[in-house]
Design goal:
The chain contains 13 helices and ten strands. By secondary structure, the protein is of the alpha+beta class. It folds into three domains: 99 residues, Acyl-CoA dehydrogenase/oxidase, N-terminal domain (Butyryl-Coa Dehydrogenase, subunit A, domain 1); 112 residues, Butyryl-CoA Dehydrogenase, subunit A, domain 2 (Beta Barrel), CATH 2.40.110.10; 123 residues, Butyryl-CoA Dehydrogenase, subunit A, domain 3. The strands form three sheets. Strands 1-4-5-8 form a four-stranded mixed sheet. A hairpin with a 2-residue loop joins strand 9 and strand 10. The protein starts with 6 loop residues before the first helix and ends in a 25-residue tail after the last helix. Bound molecules: flavin-adenine dinucleotide.
């Protein structure tokens, strides 16, 4: 018989620890945005400390294997912990992309040495990981990457030299390590000539620049790699098998916060507070007539989208945790989340009326973030792969419809035309 703690015993222990040791949830747990770099670095240090606190108390990586510092418990234990965590602070910066997809890819494809070196360090709050997939030439066609890894064997040992550029990497400027997809073979078709590597991000040869968004945020980064040496022992998976690793990487990315490896308060983002659902506060603060049937209809639609998003995520997370169901089901959740968030941002703007503004929620009450959320509504349809690509995945890999035609599938990558035709 298993000597694993029951979910209810675990829940009681978790509840007592959470109540006794954690403060209330903070506004930045949802948005992660800070007013200055200085504040952001403070928040990063705070998250490192909080993650360490979770680890020391035995709650650092509930579903991670015991041999790598986790608790080796089930998804049901994690769910119980996340439910108890609702309303409390947590190390939000560790969830995505550090725990998933980076740590999950390491768990799935890393060597025992790589896992022993990095998984405990991640769980102790010592390492933040970024994902280096998208390139200036395009992010949707992941297999079209041109960042190059060239084999070398010199005084530094057996390894690879990385040259090229990655872009849109979230907050790379303070991250410790990166998971990188690079081209290692130009003589074979594009899906068969890539390899995954891990590397420290803050090192000579990697120049990180920041990109300013319409909102003024500078979380997105671009990295330029010039002759960066990576030992062969920091290769993930077989040489040229980067697509095998990469498809699982993108799967874990789509599962995102629903992953059994992510500790995060239940219901976060499923916006409600003691004063009721956020959408009702927006309507009230915006001066909408709460007796007007058309206002009630919009509020109802907003709430229905919230509830469907939540339930869909729950069902897909259950399917993923149980190992049943098509592994590409996560694309349905990713697609729905994008479409629903865009519609909700539009409804909120309508309800807030003239009170909608592009200032922060702290300054303007519930309606404060409405204008900015509306302006930024497409972001959720792009990050983690676009909703268009999700539609393709659902069509081809869930519904079994014919694959999109592609002219470069069986052509050596060096012969694939990139950029406009000349002459
Ligand atoms: C908030 C945020 C965070 C991000 N974080 C990271 C990160 O940490 N690391 C990282 O590597 N990347 C990150 N990205 C980048 C993201 O993965 C890419 O922006 C995304 O994959 C799209 O790539 P692209 O912007 O190059 O657009 P493109 O690939 O150039 O696509 C342009 C448009 O064409 C559409 N399109 C392209 N191909 C097809 C097709 N076959 N069928 C139908 N439509 C198609 C796309 O859907 C899109 O609308 C982030 C993006 C955002 C917004």
């Amino acid at each position: 018989m298993s000597d694993m703690e029951t979910v209810e015993e675990f829940r009681a222990r978790a509840r007592a620890w959470i109540k006794g040791n954690l403060g209330p949830q903070q506004p930045w747990d949802l948005s992660q945005n800070c007013d200055s770099d200085e504040e952001e670095l403070k928040a990063v240090a705070r998250d490192r400390g909080l993650q360490r606190k979770f680890f020391d108390a035995g709650f650092g990586g509930i579903c991670f294997p015991k041999e790598y510092g986790g608790q080796g418990l089930t998804h049901d234990h994690l769910r119980a912990f996340n439910e108890e965590l609702a309303g409390y602070e947590y190390p939000s910066r560790f969830t995505v992309p550090t725990f998933t997809p980076c740590a999950t890819v390491l768990l799935e494809f890393g060597t025992p040495e790589q896992k022993a070196r990095h998984i405990p360090a991640i769980l102790k709050g010592d390492e933040f990981w970024a994902q280096l997939l998208s390139e200036p030439g395009g992010g949707s066609d992941v297999a079209g990457i041109t960042t190059r890894a060239t084999r070398v064997n010199d005084e530094r040992g057996d390894g690879w030299l990385i040259n090229g550029a990655k872009v849109w990497t979230s907050r790379a400027w303070w991250h410790d390590w990166g998971l990188l997809l690079a081209r290692t073979n130009w003589d074979v078709p594009k899906h068969t000539g890539m390899t995954v590597f891990i590397l420290p991000l803050q090192q000579p040869g990697i120049e990180i620049s920041r990109i300013e968004r319409l909102s003024g945020e500078t979380e997105a980064c671009q990295e330029f790699f010039t002759d960066v040496f990576v030992p062969d022992s920091d290769r993930i998976g077989e040489i040229d098998s980067g697509w095998t690793v990469g498809t699982r990487w993108m799967y874990h990315e789509r599962v995102g916060h629903n992953s059994p490896y992510v500790t995060r308060p239940a219901g976060l983002g499923h916006q409600a507070s003691a004063e009721g659902p956020t959408v009702v506060r927006i309507a009230r603060d915006g001066g909408a007539d709460l007796e007007d049937p058309s206002v009630l209809e919009l509020i109802g639609e907003h709430r229905a989208l919230d509830i469907v998003t939540h339930e869909l995520q729950r069902r897909i997370a259950n399917a993923a945790a149980s190992g049943y169901g098509n592994k590409d089901l996560s694309s349905i959740d990713r697609l729905f989340r994008g479409v629903a968030k865009v519609r909700q941002a539009t409804i909120a703007l309508d309800l807030a009326g003239h009170a909608a503004s592009a200032w922060t929620e702290e300054e303007e009450g519930a309606t404060g973030a409405t204008g900015m959320n509306f302006l930024m509504r497409q972001v959720v349809c792009i990050g983690g792969g676009t909703t268009e690509i999700s539609r393709n995945v659902v069509a081809e890999r869930v519904l079994g419809m014919p694959r999109e035609p592609s002219g470069d599938k069986n052509v050596p990558f060096k012969d694939v035309q990139r950029g406009p035709k000349r002459g």
